[in-house]
């Protein structure tokens, strides 16, 4: 294949600085292929920033066609450049858009599996990944005819090693366990695009290496992240640059002394206490110096989305090229995303190898590690897609990035599986309010107050949907240093830190903290089983006062741990207290997970910080809950009140449903629903009846009058019948009537009674005289004529 055919004429090239020249390279003249003609690069700089470009590169043996597409998702959600100094703090370099977006990804036409990452800002500059061999291309300095160097990127002559970060995480992102790896499930985690919002911090040494030119630092950083982003494409992960912070005066913390782990800890502490730093999923520090005793970078493992320890560092020394440093940054970001070293599990030249071998691709083991992180509930922030209103590029429908003017973007019509999004127009389908997000369900916004991120620890705080946005608010937790567990421990990074929980995480549920004598006996030695960190190549001995903040010592029934050497010993011969600790073989770029966590209580009013037992006040807790929150809530890591149920933010001084101004409404508001139910079930029917009655008022009046007349005639008929009955009874003689049945007339029935003749009583006298003849009856008055009904 062509990949193999390219090796003979590039196989002897040596590595050199990308801007300084090489011992061996080939001069080429990249040409932009247009519809009618081909032009050299120096002839068309003003026309080279289209969405799709095609370059022709003629080498000694082959012609390469480079198909490039603008990397739309590289610099997006509200990208801002800051400068920082202790005196002035954060200063924002405002802009509404990039001066030019000239960063591309692509492939070599006719060569499957190739990956290109280029910038065309000042000529063609970038990297080509082809099979196991990688090539770079860049303009020749002061060239007048578009000359470029084409060279092979060799492996580093003296590989440096990685020094990854702590395998424990905050409560929002459970760590990958040291002693066990989840089996890969059938869930297609990698089929869903994950977005890593990256904040890059450039130290003052690197700033000076770029001649103290902030614009040059920005362009260099964007080119670097463009290459890194191309490496993560295999895992369907997008690296999106959200902010760039430059230390333009001096470094606010020491980057020269101590180990890489010490510097990583200082950087994490600085970013945690500086609220002006723009929030990101991961923060990465570029340090303009050489390695730390061979350690080129360090990162916390599996801590993406953690506001405090979602961090990594790398040394980017003067003279080192972007192409050589990009794999280092990708390696450390891989650790933040839960990826372990490949050395024993996936041997080969991959990015997650523990040494810097110049690898450009991730292994299947790294894919499994990332899937494990997601399946364990980590990486929740990776589901958030960039804010489309702040994308700094021309939108391209179908690239899986929601950009300005787009309501959604689910890829091409062939690959889109989202019923809420029209892939052809990148608009929401009819009736849809949203297409994706933790607060989007069945194409509708979830009701305000719906929990979207549950509490992971007693020091964590919940977040709720606001009813008008598809994204869940950022993750918030109780301010560091707040007492927890009945005031026996302290909150730190959203976790109530205590020894027992750390022992269970490392050695299993049947373990707990050992007696203090175990800590003293082990940590005062200063070896791999007991220490207070590393100083250069040597372990640091703990003092008695700091012994509880060094290596964790547990007791109980520990489980076996992979990649660890477990040691057990006893103290106090009279009682034989068991002590268990472990040495972890995870690489020098991984801080020891067996060290006591920051913020762990080591005494009354004391807590661990940087392997020392110090006053808990140094953890940064500065909130007076009684004064600020009326003693009806706690302060979150933004310093705002998170109110108890029954009280409303921001100061918990009035009735409400709890929560904070950061977390979203903590109550599902049903007032609108209840109002609509009352309206439709009660008010609306009454209104309908009134309207119908008004419209048919004439007909209703006629019917009412007709009924009234009918009732009146019926009453008159009854009166006449009653009067006739009365007249008939009056005309009947009493003697005759006494021997005849009495008839009672009724409208319903007639009742006849045969009345027996009464017998005279024995004591009664003679028969009374007969009734005299009645007076003649007066004839009834004449009957009036019947009333004529006009409606009859």
From TrEMBL:
Annotated signal sequence range: 1-21
PROSITE patterns noted in UniProt: ADAM_MEPRO, DISINTEGRIN_1, DISINTEGRIN_2, EGF_2, EGF_3
Protein keywords: Disulfide bond, EGF-like domain, Membrane, Metal-binding, Signal, Transmembrane, Transmembrane helix, Zinc
Region feature (Disordered): 709-740, 753-792
Keyword Transferase found: no
Organism superkingdom: Eukaryota
Ranges of compositional bias, category Low complexity: 722-731
GO molecular function: metal ion binding; metalloendopeptidase activity
Protein topology in the membrane: Single-pass type I membrane protein
One GO biological process term: proteolysis
Subcellular location: Membrane
The Disintegrin domain, residue ranges: 394-480
EGF-like domain mapped to chain residues: 619-653
Pfam family, one: ADAM_CR
Keyword Cell membrane appears in the UniProt entry: no
Record protein name field: Disintegrin and metalloproteinase domain-containing protein 9
Species of the source: Xenopus laevis
